[in-house]
Amino acid sequence: MTPRSLETVRLLIRPFQEEDADAFFACCQNPNLGNNAGWAPHKTIEESREILQNVFIGQENIWAMILKDAQQLIGSIGIVPDPKRENPQVRMLGYWLDEAHWGKGYMTEAVQAILNYGFNELQLSLITANCYPHNKRSQQVLERNGFIYEGVLHQAELTYNGNIFDHLCYYLPNICQPAPQDYDEILEVWEASVRHTHHFLTEEHIQFYKPLVRDHYLPAVELFVIRNVSGKIAAFMGLSDELIEMLFVHPDEQGKGYGKRLIEYAKDKKYMDKVRKRAGIPGVDESIQKYANDEWKGKENEQETLRQFVRQERQIEFYLEGQRFWDLRRWKIAEKLDEPFLCWNIEGASVEEFFKAPQPNMTLTNHFYKSQYLLPISASELEKTPQIIQNPFY
After folding, report:
1. To 5 degrees, how large is the angle CA 268–CA 270–CA 271?
2. Which residues on adjacent β-strands are paired with residue 165?
3. 111/142 Cα distance (integer angstroms)
4. How many CA within 13 A on the CB side of residue 368?
5. From CA 151, how far away is CA 352, in angstroms rounded?
6. How far apart are CA 50 and CA 33, in angstroms?
7. What is the arrangement of strands in the sheet containing 243-249, beginning at the earlier edge strand?
8. Pairing of strands 126-131, 90-97
9. What is the pLDDT along the chain (394 residues), one digit of tens a residue?
10. Can you tell me the distance from the alpha carbon of 4 to that of 61, in angstroms, rounded to the nearest whole number?
11. Residues linked to residue 238 through DSSP beta bridges, in sequence order
12. For residues 92-106, b (16+ Cβ closer than 10 Å) or e, as one string?
């Protein structure tokens, strides 16, 4: 079955054709490419034509990557059955990219398109990937796309030149939205997780909350779930506007990266950036690059960084809940921390009145820095520096 074509902003991802032979050979004769992928560099155009015909042309879910502007073949990507797994709903991701185009984001762009195709159209439950320990670029591509590191398969492959290499194994579970008939199963995950972690809750508390969660809390949020290989719900998340309201993982499924995957999914859906963009300031990733301390840069997608953002969003929300224009007030101050700013009329009934300022106020340089804003704000800090939220009563 010939795969259909896909498109991204810069790439056409289409089936291979016989006319690709010259460009295919130009890419595959490079030893740096073959040694990272586990196959011998091509020596002749005839060899490339034979491999192209036997391995790539007409194969299901294997594509050529074409640079739109130049109409040039620059790589290949595909999802094929994983020989290490027997589940028919699992596919393994593979790819290679011409060395001249490394470091430009093309492979990350292509992987995102293939993941969307695999999860949304093929309805896969899991997409896996392997790479050699020395192939750092491939590891970075997988991590940027949210893949979870599974472990090392030692002495996994004997290559064409006699080397024996380990495989670094990664996987990415599908995330889908449940139906109302799944609420009872979600409630089971909630209860198991709460019993495992919320030791301060009594049995009376748990029984009190169960019907509330089932009948009121779950229908009130946008739910997303991850299912395990048996099809059972392993973890779920509830979103409301830009906030992660619920995040629970079954105790038997903890330590598999499901929580991290859900948080990254919420971030990718721009829930965590929604208020930022509405207020006209950069999103999480750009803000970290501009303002964060060096120790946080490059860690935008790490689990602890994402947890910090979730905690911060929730804490500020609690302090500002019910206040008019709280998002504007919050973000305008965050943008102007190192400059003098004007007193705002927090009782203003309109945006125009809200921004009317009778006199300049102090700067916050000695109290609060932009880099600190990207980390959780403690209650004591909010009480000590009420200018952060322009309301001394919170």
Report:
1. 115
2. 157
3. 8
4. 25
5. 56
6. 18
7. 222-227, 233-240, 243-249
8. parallel
9. 566 899 888 899 999 999 999 999 999 999 888 778 888 899 999 999 999 999 999 888 999 999 998 999 999 999 999 988 888 889 999 999 999 999 888 998 899 889 889 987 888 989 999 999 999 999 989 988 878 888 899 999 998 888 899 999 999 888 888 999 999 999 999 999 989 888 878 899 899 989 999 998 899 888 999 988 677 899 999 887 657 788 899 999 887 778 878 887 777 655 556 545 544 445 666 665 555 556 555 565 555 555 555 555 544 444 443 333 333 334 334 444 444 333 334 444 444 554 444 443 433 333 333 333 333 334 444 445 444 443 322 2
10. 8
11. 223, 246
12. bbbbbbbeebeeeeb
- Evaluate if pTM is beyond 0.85: no
**How distant, in Å, are the alpha carbons of 19, 267, 280, 306 from that of 330?**
57, 20, 12, 20
Give, as one character, the DSSP assignment of residue 177.
Answer: P
What is the rounded (10 degree) CA torsion for 177, 182, 186, 189?
A: -120
Q: What's the token pair of residue 264?
A: 């990254």
Nearest to residue 94, comparing CAs of 165, 170, 149, 26? 170
Tell me the CB-side half-sphere exposure of residue 98, using CA atoms within 13 A: 16
Residues 6+ apart with CB under 8 A from 35: 41
What is the phi/psi pair of residue 117, to 5°? -65, -45
Q: Retrieve residue 132's tokens.
A: 């050699």
Task: Judge whether 119 and 101 are in contact, CB under 8 Å.
Answer: no
Amino acid at 269: K
Helical H runs in the chain? 21-28, 31-37, 45-51, 106-116, 136-144, 183-197, 203-212, 218-220, 258-268, 274-278, 284-291, 303-320, 326-335, 351-354, 370-373, 379-384
**Terminal Cα distance for the chain, rounded:** 62
Q: What are the helix (H) ranges across 273-357?
A: 274-278, 284-291, 303-320, 326-335, 351-354
Q: Are 37 and 97 in contact (CB under 8 A)?
A: no
- Strand pairing partners for 65? 13, 75
Structure tokens at 345: 């009329």
Distance CA 55, CA 259 (A): 37
Owner of token pair 């490419």: 33
Closest C-alpha to 107, from 145, 133, 81, 61: 145
Q: Copy the structure tokens of residue 213.
A: 């969660």
**Contact present, 299 and 293 (Cβ < 8 Å):** no
